[in-house]
Amino acid sequence: MIYLKSLLNVVDNSGAQIVECIKVLRHGPRSCAHVGDQITVVVKQAKPISAELTGSALTNRVKRRDICRAIVVRTKAPFRRPDGTVVRFDDNACVLINKNGDPLGTRVSSVVARELKQKEFNKIVSLAPKVF
User: Fold this and answer.
1) Domain 7-127 has what CATH class?
2) Which end of the chain, N or C, is less packed with Cβ atoms under 10 Å?
3) Are 6 and 92 in contact (CB under 8 A)?
4) Residues 48-75: what's their mean pLDDT?
5) What is the annotated signal peptide range for this record (predicted)?
6) pLDDT at 51 > cutoff 70
């Protein structure tokens, strides 16, 4: 479960490395985010922008202190699937998105949860090397 001030790893190539949750975008009374939920984040640590980047790779880069939206793709807290299996990951991770819901990066570098496909984030699922 992702709460306010939770730190998450970023698993895409948008330039951010670590982000902090500042708002959970939910329509319910709960204030925690699970896999597949949208959150608003601030970038706490980012990769430096190199001089050889051009084109779309440079326009989608984020810098430290930028405020973005993200989709939670992994949580450390265990959750139960409808078939009865309990799944938990080693870390909390997210993918940065724009206002339309498309990912900012062009690659996802690690495993994402299967629940993203059920929540219609097909672009993120197709970029991921493995769906667990």
Assistant:
1) mainly beta
2) C
3) yes
4) 83
5) none
6) no
